[in-house]
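Quick one: examine the sequence and fold tokens given here and explain what the tokens say about the fold. Here goes:
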Amino acid sequence: MKRVLQILSIMVVLIHCSLWTQAEKEKLIIKKLDRVKQGEVLDTINAWVIDSNGHKVNYSSFKGKWLLIDFWSTGCAHCIKEFPFLREFYNKNKTRIEVIAVSVDRDYKRYKKSANKYDIGLPHFYGGFTYENDIFNLNVKIIKTNEGNYRFITQTPQYVLINPEGKIIDKELPKPSGKAFKNKLEAYLSEE
């Protein structure tokens, strides 16, 4: 009986420690996501993408210009459907705004294969799929479960606008195929 109680005590401690560890991980991720809320200024050190040659491109390469980020994923039919509209916008406005497509696929190879398959027609990158990357974190949504834990998900498509100073202006732009997209962006860009 004593042995059973010892084993149960150890199990309780292990379960408690694993829950504490999970809660601590969640707090750390939430803290990182707080850095990329609308209205915040993007950190140039912790924000990057990976180009199609596998090279890391720091956010500072884009700073100083308006930047529109299209978050997409391979399995997102709506994302792929929007590429022609985004490409049209990009071609008409490339002197005023930089537009990039950032894949939030979990795997770089999957991104490469999909980027080659679809005619994206604008600069495209891989988001890195890590909470250490503030560009990736722009796309992460926090969901609180009924049990009080948190889940962190990516949501595609998502369109994010960052001003030349690095301030996150809008994280929920409408889809490029709609009139609201052009109207909203025109309003933001005319504020310069």
About this structure: The mean pLDDT is 89. The longest strand covers residues 66-72.
